[in-house]
Amino acid sequence: MPEADIDRIYDYSPDYLHDILKSTRTIAMVGASADKTKFSYGVLRVLHETGYEMLPVNPNPKVTEIRGIRVYHALGEIDRPVDMVEVFRPKEELYGIAEQAIEIGAKVLWGQIGVYDDKAAKLAEDAGLKVVMNRCPKIELFRPFWKPRLDLPI
Fold it and tell me: For residues 154 and 96, what is the distance between their CA atoms, to the nearest angstrom?
């Protein structure tokens, strides 16, 4: 995909996103970081505090827990069912992660903002997974409650 497509918009109905977020209980976050300044840390924190069971995935052997949660070093190490695989990795890695998500029986493949690959999406969808790309579940979770205040002065 050309670099000009970096801001590519994938159109998902609010009901589709709502149904995924409502039915999801367990989220494996590939690319989770223990660094509190990283966006993935903040998303993991909010999703965990909202009630999702978070399963951070980080290949660094020195990272063994994030926010007191056990870290897995690969999706294949996870020892329980996974509803969603959320991807905080470069979009070039999404296809391989989609293959792994299929192998572990995940129900949803979710590419974070900037993470999208149409071939990975097709692979996952053909295997029966729901797919969301170039979106943040933290943002989508709270979108119904956010109302812009266009009347505020600049």
Answer: 45
Q: What pLDDT is attached to residue 72?
A: 98
Whether residue 83 contacts residue 107, with contact meaning beta carbons closer than 8 Å, is answered with yes
Report the alpha-carbon angle 149-152-142, nearest 5.
25
For 32-148, strand residue ranges (E) read 53-57, 65-66, 69-70, 84-87, 108-111, 130-132
The angle subtended at Cα 60 by Cα 111 and Cα 118, nearest 5°, is 20
Domain spans in the chain, listed from the N-terminal domain onward: 26-144
Q: What is the mean pLDDT of the chain?
A: 91
Q: Which residue numbers in the chain have pLDDT < 50? A: 1-4
CATH class of 26-144: alpha beta
* pLDDT for the residue 1: 42
Q: pTM of the full predicted structure?
A: 0.89
